[in-house]
Structures are given as C-alpha cells and as structure tokens.
Amino acid sequence: xSLKTGIISLAKSHGVxxxxxxxxSVYTNYIQEVSARLKETGATGRDYMFCEDxxxxxxxxxxxxxxxxxxxxxxxxxxxAFDTEGDYRATEQKLQGKTARIYTYYPVVRQIAEHVAAxxxxxxxxxxxxxxxxxKFAANEIGLGLYGWNGLxxxxxxxxxxxxxxxxxxxxxxxxxxxxxxxPCEDCGRCLKACPTGALYAPYKVNPALCINPLTRKEDDxxxxxxxxxxNWVCGCDICQEVCPMNRDLKxxxxxxxxxxxxxxxxxxxxxxxxxxxxxxxxxxxxxRMLVMQRNAVIALANIxxxxxxxxxxxxKDVDTGKLGEYLAWAIDQIAERIGIQNKxxxxxx
Length: 350
What we know:
- The protein is α+β, with helices and mostly antiparallel strands.
- It has one domain.
- The chain has helices at about 5-15, 30-40, 55-60, 105-120, 135-140, 190-195, 210-215, 225, 240, 280-285, 290-305, 305-315, 325-340, 340-345, and strands at about 20-25, 75-80, 100, 125-130, 145, 155, 160-170, 200, 205, 235.
- Helix 1 packs antiparallel against helix 4.
C-alpha cells in the first residue's frame, strides 16, 4: 500500500468526507487577490481577528514553506458539517441564538488531521497539521470544490458546509486533479442579495469589517447600525449558505460525537467554551464567563424584539453589567420603540 493510499484510508476511517493532495507552491494569484481586496475595503488585521498586520499574515499564508521549509505535499481534509442538531426552526419563538453549523466541526477535522500527521511521521517523514495555507484556495486549485460567489468552497455532495484542515508534509505524494462541481453562481447571486450587512459587496468578495461571522467573535464594539442587521446570530452566520442552491437538497448528517465548541481543539472557540448549537438566550445571559456571547445574546434578544425578550433584558438592567450596560440600554430601547411596550407599562396594562 502506498503512503497516499494509507493516508486516505486512515482519514476516512476517522470520519473524513473529502481528502485530496496538492503540490506545494507559492500561491501568487491568491496574494494578488488578497492585496486588491485589502485596498478595496481598507480591512485591517483586527477585522480578520489577526494579531498582526493583515498583509503580513496573508503573505505568510501564501507560502507553506514558511511553516515547513522542506514541504513537498499538502493533504487537504474536509468534514461534512451540516447535522441534525443545527435546527434553526422556531429559534425566535424559543428565544434561542443561532450558531454557524460549521464551527462545531472544526475540532472534528483537527483531530482527524492529527491522526494523519502522526501516520505520516510514523512513515519517517515530517508533517505539520493546521491552517497554514489558504485552504479554500488550495482545495479549489485541485478541484476538491469550487469557489462560490459567497467566498466559500462549494462541493458536489456537501455544498458549502465543510470544515477544512491541512497536513503539510515533506513526503512526495501524487497530487490530485478532481473534476469540480458546476456552481450556479452566474445565474443566481442570491448570497449577495441576502447578506444583511452588505459584507458580500461583489462576487467572491467579502468585507470582514461588515461580516456577521467575525463580528460575533470579536471583542470590539459593534456599531449600532450593524447590530440591527445581525438577527439572532450569536456565533458566526450561515445566511449566505442558507440561500445557496448548492445547499438546498442537503440531508443533515448524524452528529459526530466529537462535534462541539472546544477551545482545546480550535483557537476560534476561545470565547465559546461548551456553548450549545442553538443556545437558550436567557440562560446565556446568566453565564458571565462569556462576555462576548452575552453581548451577542443581548443583540439577538433586541432583534427578536418580543415582550418576553424585553422582560429578560429589563431583568439585567439594574445589575452591575460592566461593558454590557450600553448594549442592554440600547436593546431595551429598541424593543420598546418597536412594540410600544413603555406605553403599556405607563398605562398599567402589564
């Protein structure tokens, strides 16, 4: 059995859904596109949740040999992330927050990547697993999927709901060249129309300063004009995926037991802990360990805008809320103005 065949077999035995091999190269086209995007949007490292200059980050990402100088091959791994626990029906009536379906599967694909890296090292080669390359770009290059207008990778069998990871190695593996799916983007454009903040400002182009995905995970203040457009998303956003025809006929998978918000298996989960897929917003307000999520819960309750949501927010108004104080005052006023609840209280009807 060849090393590549062994890698594929091992990865599938651990639950990977797609696997492919790419040659190591400097992604000059990628860095050119990123450079143009940064000039268009004025986005900074903070907008992308980086601790460094955005251009420096992407330049490092474009050349995997900065991570492993002897690198020769890249093993790309993808796990289907749309499962039955990501149920968004009646979340507003139940006062629940929505979370991006894919996030809970990052720990799954990372654990698979760890097994693959260990297997390659056991064969006498070096291997580094992680996100050291532009994953979607590399997957698009070998036809594992195809870029959609929403900037996400569209796959034939799993739509855009795939969690990606890579293993970089100095083993020389035969690269793949798959037949990519045919995407309907040219005749569609639904994702651009559906994006509530205008973050998708052109085909394949996303402004991270407006995207709900990073907004819900950053500790930075969220401008009021954007809060009103966030709906009840408390971690990430799937709006551009929900309207995509490539995802229309997907069947939810059985949940993987490893799927969770696990800080030990993905850095972006730092502020999330064991947050449930569709968290109870009232209960989330009681968990003072997650200030970012509490802020998002306040915004979600404001946007749901029911009298029940208003009473939950009022309960916390006079509590020592620290940074949440301004969000609470704003949220209470939003609902009061929308449904005229203050007039009801003044008249003694509630």
